[in-house]
Design brief:
By secondary structure, the chain is mainly alpha-helical. It has 18 helices and no strands. The chain has helices spanning 2-37, 47-57, 63-74, 80-118, 124-158, 164-188, 200-213, 220-237, 247-268, 274-305, 310-321, 327-339, 346-359, 364-381, 383-414, 419-453, 458-478, 484-500. Helix 3 crosses helix 15 (383-414), helix 4 (80-118) packs antiparallel against helix 15 and helix 17 packs antiparallel against helix 18. 47% of the residues are buried.
């Protein structure tokens, strides 16, 4: 009898934990869908938005776990918000949670795109008008989250007793200087060419090099070498126009990578024991298999309907694996792989897809591959086949983003106590903070561009942006309200704007 009772209690405990996991997964998916729906501004812009939901709001994962996933997403190709969603989902509910969370993050933008391409036809202009009207106040709300993230990152450093806030502030300012010159000049009305003007990817690469290069040695000689290499890299990769030897742009990244890798290998020492390595490999194989299974199921309908679409699937997957540098960089990749090769008409790419993916929320990578799949599939067999193609393109973008991310994220989790990963996690917040200030300025300028499509003057759009931004910062910083309130405020302003103009 006692054994039966013990077994019953055990079953109840297992069932309780299972129910708790299901509720957590359902809450996570709801959060990811909501974030995907307001996901204007690019991948970096959503880092604080996702953190507010999964760390501060629902408390699904710890801040340390979240920062590890941000690091992994920042150094791997693919759609950054989809990758972070996948990492959170994996921690909450394993491989199933990983896939469902990633899909939920990318789905709203993809559905909006396909809806406009297929079902709205004659009402496309009206739908675009509503989306553009919403994008101005929602963009201002996201700007407030970006600035809030940066403020909190610097506040956290200011509370430390080791004086690290000075270093954090210097890092944030340096990253912004390296990436945001063009936006600052535009804000001041100056037509100047940036001296540095590094891309987000190159700024991150330089940051990681410096962190790893000084991992084990901070002598004066090493500091001098690091400073010289960093300056040469910034000048060679930037837009200074100085007459530097052409080989610098080719050789420097390899030299810096080798030097950083040497320090990482040295810091690992003998910690790569077999047991931990087996655990890493077993988890990596399991997650990789899940991503490939998801991909196989999703592309099967289009391959059965139009076998020649296998070329699109292969090119799409390859493009996901090389999509470093954010959404704007992916447009160049898509142009080369699909337009230049004749798979997609140039008019459809530049006249239809590019404007749509830039104005709709969500990852540009996911929206673009979904849209290309729909357009190419529709041309091959009508609307139904176009929908099959859209599903295939969507799955290719999500699976391609998640595969390499999962490998790097698991590596970081397995060896999280290593100096290299600890150092990157330690400084990633001020680095991201500098990038987010630049993204906030980009959103400000984007609202001015959207204004022309709504028959608004740029000054009115900028004034509206500042009003919503100020109100959102007041609610978040002074009133300490949840992000839901300023988000609802922004949505209400957008609806009113769509009705008035």
């Amino acid at each position: 009898m006692e054994g039966v009772l013990r077994k019953g209690r055990l079953s109840a405990l297992v069932a309780g934990r299972s129910g708790e996991k299901r509720r957590a997964l359902a809450g996570l998916m709801a959060s990811m869908l909501r974030i995907g729906l307001i996901g204007f501004g690019g991948g970096n812009a959503l880092i604080p938005v996702i953190e507010a939901e999964v760390v501060k709001g629902r408390r699904l994962i710890t801040e340390r776990d979240y920062q590890e996933d941000v690091v992994a997403a920042s150094i791997t190709p693919g759609a950054l918000p989809v990758e972070i969603a996948a990492g959170t989902g994996q921690r909450v509910a394993g491989s199933l949670g990983m896939i469902l969370a990633a899909v939920a993050m990318a789905l709203p933008g993809a559905l909006l795109l396909v809806g406009i391409l297929s079902f709205l036809s004659g009402e496309q202009a009206e739908a675009m008008h509503v989306v553009q009207s919403l994008s101005i106040p929602i963009g201002a709300f996201i700007m407030s989250l970006l600035l809030l993230y940066t403020v909190k990152a610097l506040r956290a450093e200011a509370q430390a007793k080791d004086g690290s806030w000075k270093g954090a502030l210097a890092i944030t300012a340096a990253i912004f200087l390296l990436t945001g010159e063009a936006n600052v000049y535009k804000l001041l009305g100056l037509s100047l060419t940036p001296f540095f003007g590094l891309s987000t990817l190159k700024a991150l690469g330089l940051s990681f090099f410096l962190i790893l290069f000084f991992l084990n040695d901070r002598s004066r000689g090493r500091i001098a070498v690091g400073a010289v290499l960093s300056l040469l890299f910034a000048l060679a990769e930037g837009k200074s126009g100085l007459p530097l030897p052409s080989f610098l742009a080719v050789a420097l990244p390899w030299v810096m990578t080798a030097l950083a890798a040497r320090e990482v290998v040295h810091s690992f020492g003998n910690s790569c024991e077999r047991g931990r390595l087996r655990t890493f490999l077993r988890g990596a194989v399991e997650e990789g298999g899940a991503w490939l299974a998801f991909l196989a199921v999703s592309i099967l309908p289009i391959l059965l309907a139009v076998p020649s679409m296998a070329d699109f699937v292969a090119r799409g997957y390859f493009s996901s694996l090389i999509s470093f540098g954010g959404g704007d960089a992916y447009l160049t990749i898509a142009d080369g792989l699909f337009v230049a090769t004749g798979i997609l008409p140039e008019a459809a790419f530049f006249g239809l897809l590019v404007p749509l993916v830039n104005v709709l929320p969500g990852s540009i990578l996911c929206k673009m591959l979904t849209g290309i799949g729909f357009v190419v599939g529709s041309a091959a067999g009508g609307t139904v086949v176009g929908l099959f193609g859209a599903v295939a393109g969507f799955a290719v973008s999500v699976s391609g983003s998640g595969l390499l991310f999962g490998l790097v994220a698991r590596l970081i989790r397995t060896y999280r106590e290593q100096k290299a990963f600890q150092a990157i996690s330690r400084w990633i917040r001020p680095i991201i903070g500098g990038l987010l200030i630049n993204v906030a300025l980009s959103l400000f300028h984007a609202n001015a561009r959207v204004a022309s499509a709504l028959a608004l003057t740029p000054y009115l759009a900028e004034a509206l942006t500042l009003i919503v931004l100020g109100a959102s910062l007041y609610l978040l910083l002074v009133r300490h309200t949840a992000p839901t309130r300023p988000m609802l405020l922004a949505g209400a302003v957008g609806i009113i704007l769509s009705l008035v103009y």
